[in-house]
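Forwarding the complex inputs:
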Amino acid sequence: MRGGSILITLAVSLLLFSGCEPKPQPIELGSDQCAYCRMMITEQEFGTQILNKQGRAFKFDSVECMAAYDITEDGENFHSKWVPDFLNRENWVNAEEAVYLHSETLRSPMGLYLTAYADRESAEQMQAEYGGDILDYESVKVLVSGEWLDNSENQVHHQNH
Amino acid sequence: MNGLTTVKTKCITKIIRVEHGKRNYLWPTNGRKLDNTFSLENLDLMKQIIYIVAILLFLTPVSLIYGQITVSPDGSITSIQEAIDQAISGDTIRVEAGTYNESDISIKKPITILGIDRPVIDGEGKGFIMLITADSVTVSGFDIHNTGRSYIRDYAAIMIENSKDFIIEDNRLDNVFFGIYLAETDRGVVRNNEIESYDLREASSGNGIHLWSVKNPRIENNTVKGMRDGIYLEFVDNARITGNVSSDNNRYGLHYMFSNGGIYHDNTFRKNGAGVAVMYSENVDMKNNRFENNWGPSSYGLLLKDIRNSTIEGNRFYRNTVAIYSESSSNVQIRRNDVELNGWAVNIKSSSARNYFTENNFIENSFDVRTDSPRNNNVFEGNYWSQYEGYDLDRDGIGDVPYRPVSLFSIIIDRQPESLILMRSMFIRLLDTAERIAPVLTPKTLIDENPKMSRIQ
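Prediction (whole assembly, two chains):
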């Protein structure tokens, strides 16, 4: 009898935990702060997040800040990375699967001109209108580390033209 | 009887307006305005010649002499764009009182556009309102309303692009997405403008005065309310930002990014969502500003991130959640500031080094200094701390025992924010006192060896 109730408790808690796959959390615009650059997040179409295995969200004001955090922090405990679809900003897209546009006519909060899309088609559509290059997440990381993190301590200042 | 008078007045105004509608040339040497209606009688020969020359000039469509064009709702020119199209370089366009429903007004030549008795330009929610792409343009004295809003285009009431030596002054902007937007400009002046725009969906508001890739701008005595950032700078060199009041903005009163060698003096930043942020910049001079009433979970009087070789002097920090927050900043001189009634006076991350806090007044802050490490690489020296409980036996005005501005409780809160509920309890007071006598957890070197006994004037 006693063993049975323990089993039931175990089963119930297993059920509960399996329902706890970390999900992207809503960003409180005008209150949440970027975990990388400390800026307050105000634009939903640029706000990104990394979830750790405990389901805690690290939120960022831009794709570039998320990529920089991803490069500089130990990713051991990361569960997943999420970006908003620029054309449907309620929609979270897995950062590794998203398609990015790097176009100087579409300014992003930290000045690296990056926007994210759910699929290649919409990125190409935007590219036709606004120009620029289509990137995957790995090339976004290469771009961010080239612009911000490489060559010495004083990096960020040098992205000024 | 009444109807008759109205008709009469209307007629008179119409006559005057018709005259204004013509092109009135100014005499180049003395700026005297010539009358359009004159008689050739009773004039000596000299004057006749002058008038004949004037008539010839009047008849010439293209003239080298600066002219003046008047726009009015019931004159011969009723649209500002039409007047601009007719104008030549150096002309002045006078826009009389009235409402002009115009957007994307394009200014491609060096001209002056003056609003007389506050004419209103209503963009009716379509795109930009004025787009300036020429040097030496002046825009003054307008009430400008209703720009377009977009997630992709930065629609602004006044957009200045690739331009030098312009003046934007005495305008009032209301219900605009971006207010005054400078892109790739040099030596522009933006002064005495009022920008106010409250959008309920806060994500869709732009910045009041937005500067991107700009050299030597002067931003003086403007008032900005209810925007995203009051004044925003990105890649700006040598900005002079003085005498502005930036309040009730959703994010920052002033947002300074990747901008070197500027000054901001004598400004007031009040009740902004997150205070003022100065990020990724060098050689910034911040003097005599007021940082007031910036309350909120991620709100700071002044947020410093990656700042080097800068000065923060003579400012007043009053009632902010955190007066000064510093991360990854170095060689910043923080002196002679009044830091009063804030939650935390200073929150300095261990990534900050070689910053000097001297001769400041720290008065009745809930906590003086908060930090995240037992190591300390910054200097606190000769400040006045109202929480200092030491003594001055030699009466030299300097306390005989050092002051430790980081309390044990502030360390505990840094690790366990929930413990804030114990604030001002007897237990915490005992702990703090014990820690001050025999420090274990607080940074041993974060001390003020020479705390002042009285407030520094």
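The mean pLDDT of chain B is 87.
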